[in-house]
Every structure is written in C-alpha cells, then in structure tokens.
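Action item from last week, closing it out:
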Amino acid sequence: MGSGGARPGRTPELLVLLCSVGAAVAAVAQPFVLGRTLDLLLRGGDTARWLLLSAGLLLGELLLDSLTSLCTGRCTAGWTAAVRSRAFAGLLGSAPDRAREFSPGDVGTRLTLNAAAAGGAPAARAALAASLVTPAGALVALALVDVWVAACVLAGLPALALVLRAFARDSGASVAAYQRVQSEIATRLLEALDGATTIAAAGTAARERERVLAPLPELAALGRRMWVLHGRALGRSGVLVPLLVLAATAVGGLRLAAGALSVGGLLAAGRYAQLAAGVGGAASLLGAVVRGRQARARTLELERLPPLAYGTRRLPPDGPGSLELRGVRVVRDGREVLRADGLRVPGGATVAVVGRGGAGKSVLVAVAGRLTDPDEGQVLLDGVPLDRLSRQALRSEVAFAFERPVLGEGTVAEAVAAGARRASPEQVRAALGAAGADGFVRRLPHGDGTPLTWAPLSGGEHQRLGLARAFAHAGRLLIMDDATSSLDTATEHEVDRALRRSPRPGTRLVVAHRPSVADRADLVIWLEEGRVRAVATHRELWHTADYRAVFAAGGTGAGPSPVRRPASERARP
C-alpha cells in the first residue's frame, strides 16, 4: 500500500450502514403497525397509540434516509480523497521510469474517474448490505404474520438471487474494458492538446480528431452492453417481483377467506411480500460496487508502484561533488540502455553528456542524480552510495534542471524557492540573476511576487525560471537535462559564466546538444548505444568523425570555438 493519504477508516462506512439499517428496520416495522391499526379501527378499538407509533416510524425512516444521504456523501468524499492521494503518492514516490508504462491520459483517468468510482464503493457496499436487511427482516416478519404466505415468497427468492449473481458476474468484465477504453481516449486527447500548435500548422485537425475518437465506437458498444446487462437484471426482477407479490397476495386472500388471517394481517402480508421481493432492486447498488471494485484495482496499480527507498547516511561535509559509476547497468523492456563502469566525474568539473538520440544521455543523468536506480552496480557521490543517503541529504545536495520544468502554483519567488530546503529571498534573487531571468521578472506587475497565473511566460522564460530554481537549490551536484534548449546562445553563455562565478560552483552534469556547450565543458562523456565510448575534452574528441556526426545529426555542425576561455572561468578537476 502507498504511504500517502490517510484512509478514512471504517467509521464513515459504518455510519452509512447503521443509518441504512435503521431506516430498513423502520420500514419493516411499519406494515405490522399499520395492519394492527387497521384491525383496531375495524373493531372500534383505541388506535391513538398505534397511529402515533405509525407516524413516528414514518418520520424516523425519513430522518434516517436523510442521515444516510449525508453520511454517504461524507464517506464517498473521504474515500475518494484517500484513494486519489494514495495513488498520487505511489506515483510520485516511485522512480519516474517505473511509472512510464502509464501514459499521462491513463494516469489522469485513474486519478479522476476511477478514483471517484472507487471512492463511492464503500458507501455502496454498506448500502447494499443494508438493502438485504429489508427483505430478510420482511421475510421474518411475514413468517410471524402467516407462515404460508412467507413460504410462497421464500420459494421465489432464489430466482431473484440468480438474477443478481448473473449481473455481477457479467458486468465485471464490461466495466473493466469500459474503463480501459476511457483511458485510451484520454491519452490520445492529451497527446493532441500537447501538439495542438503543430496540428494547427500542419492542417491535420480532422485526421487528429478521427484518431482521438477512433476508440469511441468500442466505448459506445461497451456502454450499451453495460446498460443491457443492467436493464436485463432490472427487467427480470421487474417481472419476478410483481409475480411474487401477486402469488403472495393470492395465498393471503385464501388465508383471509379461511379465517386464518385478519384484514390488517393481509395488508401487512402484502407489504412484507413487496419488501421481501425488493432484493431485486439491489442491482443498482451491486453495479456501483462492481464498478468501484474494478476502478480500485486500477488505482492500486499506481499506489503499489515500487517506491524509491532511501537510507540514513549523510554526505561528508564540504565534499567537492565527485561522482563515480561502478558496474552500472540499466535494462528497460529487456534491452540494455546503459552500461557504465569506472566512470569518474571530478568534483567541481563541468561535464557535458553527448550522444545521438537514444544513446542513453537522460538515463545516465537520471541514474547519476538517483531519479532511478540501476539494475546493477552503484553510483557514489563523494564516496557514498546514493541509495544509502537519506532523502533530505540526497535532494538537498543534488539539483535538477529540465527542458520543461513544472513550476507549480504560487508566485514566481515561491516557485524558485520551493525545494528540499526553502531558499531565502537573497538566494532567490541571486538565482534569478544567474539564470538570466531577473530582467523579465522585474517587468512583471509585482516582480518576483507576481503569481505565475498572471505571468504569461515564453518557452525560454519558463525554462529560465526552472534553471533559477535549480540554481537556488544546487548543492555539490547540479544536473541539467537539456535545460537550456530554449535559450539563445548568448543567454546560454551568460548562464554558464554566472554558474562559474558562483561561490560554490559544485559539479555540473549537462546534457548537451550544441557543440558550444560541449566546448565550454571541462570534460565530455560521449555515449553511443548506451555505452561510454570516450571521456575527453571536446577539442580532443572533435578530431573524430563519428563525434562530429553526433552534432551534425542534431542540426548543427559548428566546431569548437577558436577562442579558449580564461582559466579563471574554467572549473578545475
């Protein structure tokens, strides 16, 4: 089970059950009281007490039904929140690559529609249990009124039970398939929204609409099947119930004619027959339980994602940020995507990670910063294995900057300050300056106090704020995974200069697609098909045709700058 989101416990479900059972008891008691009142009226007896009792039962049933609705709402809301937060915690607590099997649309469906259906299941289960109290109590009361009428009703109940059993069995598979197709449509829709600009520019909106809606006929067929199953169950019970009530009324009439049953007893017997046959009306509640169970199975897949476990060790104080990969091997879908053994990154160095698309660059930096664990081997930071570090020690010393950072909500300053340890206002301002973001931030209505929702940001501005957040929290290791792709060359160069002037530059691991970035680095790690082909300077590697082809494939073939940077600007290994 996931660790996030406390479960509401069984109290809300128990309250729904108690209120529902109370309402059922009141409903079962009413026919007896009404029958007794009718008999007294026919005999001219005193009916005041019985009329008062009948009114009290009716009022009590209404009040208990209202309480049931209130408790059902609270129970559903509490369980939905718990299911959603636990699934979300499981998703965030696992290694990102472990969650990649779930598409964004699928995750969104599981956290919204499926979580809501799963959250309604406990209350539906309690209501279903209570709904069986009414026919059971009615059958017992009917036996006390007249055993022959009770026997008639009892003989017909197995047929109703078979109807419900068939409905539960057949609807489970249909519900699961329906939820799967829902997720598929949501996934395609999110993909289309993400590429809306490209679709509009290419004029392929009609084709994209067809792609998104392609699973709709299957969804409609599954929906129709679900309604057919539901309608079939209701229809069969709708035929059986009147026949059962009619048979019970006929037997009751014969017993009345024989003098074995009073008029009030006949009234009570007819009503009890209706209540006992009401077991067929449980199909709707049973359907909600089935849908909730299938939906819960889907949210549990997120909740039970393998968590990224942490140790208890700390890093040695004032470590330079040296990084080492020993016997590291990463396998995805049966294919080795990274192998690195004896790879050492000197503390304080800026190291570019270079390679063609799919060479394993993002896998390497993810392993280096422990966004994921290798299948084999160890990654050490200043001599300490990353998986032995506490969460606080790791995340306060390793910072990431990505191509598309998620800034969250709040103000610009709050977005930059958020992290494992909250950055001070001075650190936020320094980080904004280092990322080249202070200029456009000053032009915002309230500077860095401007809410992000009021700040329409370009791609480059958005990326610079992500860089600022990484700089504000950078410890001894800063990893930049394509984090400057939206910046122009001049701004990118200024960001690099600002980092090198930092009082504690630390070690920087940069995924590079431009030769200018690799040229400014102290070392280059050249990856090819998941293997480390070479570790050297950009100038040394530039003499190799295959290395130059890496940048040519990326759309730029510019070589190293003819002007070397001053030694004071270069981090020394």
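Closing note: Residues 89 and 293 are 20 Å apart (CA to CA).
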